[in-house]
């Protein structure tokens, strides 16, 4: 049974999505991931976005560890209902609504997100059948919504290639755990394509 590892709701069991609809992050990988994020000091007070949320495990773990707000995005009805149950658990412990559940396709959610919206920490754990061009398109939609100093974590099969990072996003680390590989990215410097741009005199 998966659980919240640490924080205000640490030790609490999480509801899992029934059947094989999702591919949950193992507790071993989740523990290693959050140990690294703690070292980066990006969780406390963060605005967190969990795309392809599944059960919402990564998002609610962030909430338990002190994130300010968490948005879970999941399209499947059964998985979305599980997200809500896990969100309710953490919100009850927090005494306020920290975690919100958005039943939506990831692309649609990002398309209708206000231009001013910025996230400090973003998780993407897409289903393995999602191909590389589709993942690249989602990352391109996400890039404008990263806060300065933000971190993006992409979880993929260790057999898949490195994601095609868009302009405005750069990979800075990666780590393999058996069949799982985590890619870490941050906002990059977009090329200056303005007219008349040139070297300083």
TrEMBL record:
Primary enzyme class: transferase
GO molecular function: 16S rRNA (guanine(966)-N(2))-methyltransferase activity; nucleic acid binding
Gene3D superfamilies: Vaccinia Virus protein VP39
Keyword Manganese listed: no
EC number(s) stated in the UniProt entry for this protein: 2.1.1.171
Pfam families: Cons_hypoth95
Keyword DNA damage: no
Keyword tags: Methyltransferase, Transferase
PANTHER family found in the cross-reference section: METHYLTRANSFERASE
The protein, known as: 16S rRNA (Guanine(966)-N(2))-methyltransferase RsmD
Taxonomic source organism: Arthrobacter oryzae
Gene name per UniProt: rsmD
């Amino acid at each position: 049974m998966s659980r919240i590892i640490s924080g205000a709701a640490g030790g609490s069991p999480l509801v899992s999505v029934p059947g094989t609809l999702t591919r949950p992050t193992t507790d071993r990988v989740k523990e290693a991931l959050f140990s690294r994020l703690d070292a980066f000091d990006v969780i406390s007070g963060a605005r967190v976005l969990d795309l392809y949320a599944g059960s919402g495990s990564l998002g609610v773990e962030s909430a338990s560890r002190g994130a300010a707000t968490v948005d879970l995005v999941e399209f499947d009805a059964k998985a979305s209902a599980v997200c809500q149950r896990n969100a309710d658990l953490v919100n009850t412990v927090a005494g306020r609504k920290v975690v919100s559940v958005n039943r939506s396709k990831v692309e649609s959610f990002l398309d209708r997100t206000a231009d001013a919206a910025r996230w400090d920490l973003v998780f993407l754990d897409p289903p393995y059948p999602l191909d590389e061009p589709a993942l690249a398109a989602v990352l391109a939609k996400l890039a404008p919504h990263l806060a300065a100093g933000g971190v993006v974590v992409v979880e993929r099969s260790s057999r898949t290639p490195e994601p095609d990072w868009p302009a405005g996003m750069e990979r800075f680390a990666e780590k393999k755990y058996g069949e799982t590989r985590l890619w870490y990215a941050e906002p990059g410097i977009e090329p200056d394509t303005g007219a008349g741009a040139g070297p300083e005199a």
